[in-house]
Amino acid sequence: QKEVEQNSGPLSVPEGAIASLNCTYSDRGSQSFFWYRQYSGKSPELIMFIYSNGDKEDGRFTAQLNKASQYVSLLIRDSQPSDSATYLCAVVVSRTGNQFYFGTGTSLTVIP
Amino acid sequence: EAGVAQSPRYKIIEKRQSVAFWCNPISGHATLYWYQQILGQGPKLLIQFQNNGVVDDSQLPKDRFSAERLKGVDSTLKIQPAKLEDSAVYLCASSRSGTVNEQFFGPGTRLTVL
């Protein structure tokens, strides 16, 4: 079983729509969760992190964490073509001594 | 603030040859990570250093891969001998201290093994 799982997509949304990206994790004890964005041929860059259950908003981005169901999601409101990228979910897995695991990423395309 | 520096940016070698990558983290960052990212996959952690000590190298293929961070600043990752399946982008990242802090990534080194 993988520590972090994401739907690889591709996910396509029209410009201005809400993009919803989901991630599940296997270690119930995990406490730290991150969303990174990776443009093609570039390195990952941090979008948001979340530690507590519930929602965390930052501009057009909202991270949602549900520890009981072991999933974390990222919502992108008013999607723009510049949001087209691969979105990587990452989890600090406490069971393995706070190792950092990335999911395989979800490819998002925003259609103008 | 200067970012994470890596070199070389690209490297092409033949299988069974050796190769080394260099990384200089952001000044003051105690934690340094090396990741392997195969095309279409997420980054996989190879090794994590805290200052000049190894915190985690459980996913490092130690029969062919080695890494060091002698003075707690820059780091080198070596592959000897290389295999075809080592073709990937090798990413270096650093953070202030530990995995709970934001990791900043370097531009990566794209390795092609022929």
What does this structure look like?
- The complex is a heterodimer of chains A (112) and B (114).
- Chain A has 112 residues and is mainly β.
- Helices cover 0% and strands 56% of the residues of chain A.
- In chain A, the strands form two sheets. In chain A, strands 2, 4, 5, 9, 10 and 11 form a six-stranded mixed sheet that branches. In chain A, strands 1-3-8-7-6 form a five-stranded antiparallel sheet, with no helix packed on it.
- In chain A, strand 4 (32-38) and strand 5 (45-50) form a beta hairpin.
- Chain A is globular.
- Chain A starts with a strand and ends with a strand.
- The mean pLDDT of chain A is 93.
- Chain B is an all-beta fold and 114 residues long.
- Helices cover 0% and strands 48% of the residues of chain B.
- Chain B is built from no helices and eleven strands.
- Chain B has strands at residues 5-7, 10-13, 19-24, 31-37, 44-50, 53-56, 65-68, 75-79, 88-95, 104-105, 109-113.
- In chain B, the strands form two sheets. In chain B, strands 2, 4, 5, 6, 9, 10 and 11 form a seven-stranded mixed sheet that branches. In chain B, strands 1-3-8-7 form a four-stranded antiparallel sheet, with no helix packed on it.
- Chain B starts with a strand and ends with a strand.
- Classes of the chains: A mainly beta (112), B mainly beta (114).
- At the A-B interface, strand 5, strand 9 and strand 10 of A face strand 5 and strand 10 of B.
